[in-house]
Amino acid sequence: MKFLVDAQLPRRLANFLNQSGHDVLHTRDLPEGNSTADTVINEISLREQRVVITKDDDFVQSFLLQEKPYKLLLVATGNIKNTDLEDLFRRNLSQIIEFLDTHSYIELGRDAIIIHR
């Protein structure tokens, strides 16, 4: 699966997903780096069919109103240590992939995955 990890999430998450066999970009990999505008992230997501992984609620509004980005994984954990975030993804990655195969917007919390669409 193809992912684009947004600026407020660590590169470590992108590295973990890459090591798990996925095609992953972090906003730091883009020409504008972590200053890349949400509209540009949405364009890349649509063009390359990448799931945007973010904590940014602005992407939720964009997705609901404009169906941009291509697919959305909202990380709704509040503040979380990088090691705990990676562990959360490690424990739930197969289910996340399964849900994203058939749904366009899911939310990952500390204790549950919520399918919104």
Q: Which key phrases capture this entry?
A:
alpha/beta, 117 residues, Rossmann fold
Q: Can you tell me about this structure?
A:
The protein is an alpha/beta fold and 117 residues long. It has a single domain (2-115), classed as Rossmann fold (3-Layer(aba) Sandwich), CATH 3.40.50. 44% of the residues lie in helices and 21% in strands. It is built from four helices and six strands. The protein has helices spanning 11-19, 38-48, 57-66, 82-102; strands spanning 2-5, 23-26, 51-54, 71-75, 105-108, 113-115. It has a six-stranded mixed sheet, with helices on both faces. Helix 4 (82-102) links the parallel strand 4 and strand 5 (105-108). The longest helix is centred in the last third of the chain and has 21 residues, at 82-102. The protein is globular. The chain starts with a strand and ends with a strand. The mean pLDDT is 97.
Strands, helices and their partners?
Layout: E1 2-5, H1 11-19, E2 23-26, H2 38-48, E3 51-54, H3 57-66, E4 71-75, H4 82-102, E5 105-108, E6 113-115
Parallel strand pairs: 1-2, 1-3, 3-4, 4-5
Antiparallel strand pairs: 5-6
Strand order of the largest sheet: 2-1-3-4-5-6
Q: How many structural domains are formed by the residues?
A: 1
Mean of pLDDT: 97
Number of helices: 4
Instruction: Quickly give the structural class.
Output: alpha/beta
Q: What order do the helices and strands follow?
A: EHEHEHEHEE
- How far apart the termini lie comes to 18 Å
Number of strands: 6
Q: The CATH topology is what?
A: Rossmann fold
CATH class: Alpha Beta
Helicity level: 40-55%
Annotated CATH architecture: 3-Layer(aba) Sandwich
How big a fraction of the residues is strand? 15-25%
Low-confidence stretches: none
Shape: globular
Question: What value does the Rg take, in angstroms?
Answer: 13 Å
Summarize the main sheet.
Answer: 6 strands, mixed
